[in-house]
Write a structure and sequence with these properties.
coiled coil, 2 helices
Length: about 90
């Protein structure tokens, strides 16, 4: 069994990895928002159903990225709570 110090170090490493992942998700979210704006500008006035479907898919992707960030925040909170009990 790992010592408390080893366990804390492993959790700290995992939290750093989560932070890196959160930064990547945030960057992806920003790029996605830029893509939505570009697509909206390029296709403004188009009444084609595929344009609406593309915009809806991008909106869904943006929502799922936000849900991902929320889930990682919850994971961090739980991990930090656990560390505080050690």
């Amino acid at each position: 069994m790992a010592s408390v110090a080893e366990l804390k170090a492993a959790i700290d490493a995992a939290l750093q990895q989560i932070g890196d992942g959160q930064a990547a998700v945030q960057a992806a979210s920003e790029k996605l928002a830029e893509a939505q704006q570009t697509l909206a500008g390029a296709l403004e006035g188009s009444g084609h159903s595929t344009v609406d479907a593309a915009q809806a898919s991008l909106s869904q992707a943006a929502q799922e990225l936000e849900e991902c960030l929320a889930a990682t925040l919850a994971a961090v909170e739980q991990a930090q709570l656990y560390v505080s009990t050690l």
